[in-house]
């Protein structure tokens, strides 16, 4: 929490027009996600790495019109161990 003018408010992340489609813990993982999306014609970018509770977090972002397709692509390439 961040104190703003004496109030505790959660920090919100503003991505402008972009939509977060994946959260990963390394730049290598972010690169892999972006490559899978790129191979399907979906443009993406990443946020800068951010430490949250001792864990690194990187968001992969896409345009809103690509979000549903990007989600389906990522789900199709995700395995459960």
**Strand segment count:** 6
| Series of H and E elements | EEEHEEEH
* CATH fold node name: Alpha-Beta Plaits
Cα radius of gyration in angstroms: 15 Å
Separation of termini? 33 Å
The main β sheet shows up as:
4 strands, antiparallel
Average residue pLDDT: 86
- Please give the share of residues in helix: 25-40%
Class computed from helices, strands and strand pairing:
alpha+beta
CATH superfamily: Hypothetical protein rpa1041
Beta-strand content estimate = 25-35%
Looking at the overall shape, the CATH architecture is 2-Layer Sandwich
Instruction: Give me the number of helical elements.
Output: 2
Quaternary organization: single chain
Key features of this structure:
two-stranded antiparallel sheet; 6 strands; alpha+beta; Alpha-Beta Plaits
Structure description:
There is one protein chain. With 81 residues, the protein is an alpha+beta fold. It has one domain (18-76): Alpha-Beta Plaits (2-Layer Sandwich), CATH 3.30.70. Helix content is 28%, strand content 32%. The strands form two sheets. Strands 3, 4, 5 and 6 form a four-stranded antiparallel β-sheet that branches. The longest helix has 13 residues, at 27-39.
Topology diagram in text:
Blueprint: E1 2-4, E2 7-9, E3 19-24, H1 27-39, E4 44-46, E5 50-52, E6 55-62, H2 67-76
Antiparallel strand pairs: 1-2, 3-6, 4-6, 5-6
Protein name: DUF2007 domain-containing protein
Organism: Nocardia cyriacigeorgica
């Amino acid at each position: 929490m961040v104190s703003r003018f004496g109030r505790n408010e959660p920090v919100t992340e503003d991505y402008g027009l972009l939509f977060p489609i994946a959260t990963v813990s390394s730049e290598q993982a972010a690169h892999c996600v972006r490559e899978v999306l790129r191979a399907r014609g979906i443009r993406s970018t990443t946020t800068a790495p951010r430490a949250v509770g001792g864990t690194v977090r990187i968001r992969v972002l896409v345009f809103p019109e690509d979000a549903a397709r990007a989600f389906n692509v990522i789900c199709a390439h995700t395995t459960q161990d």
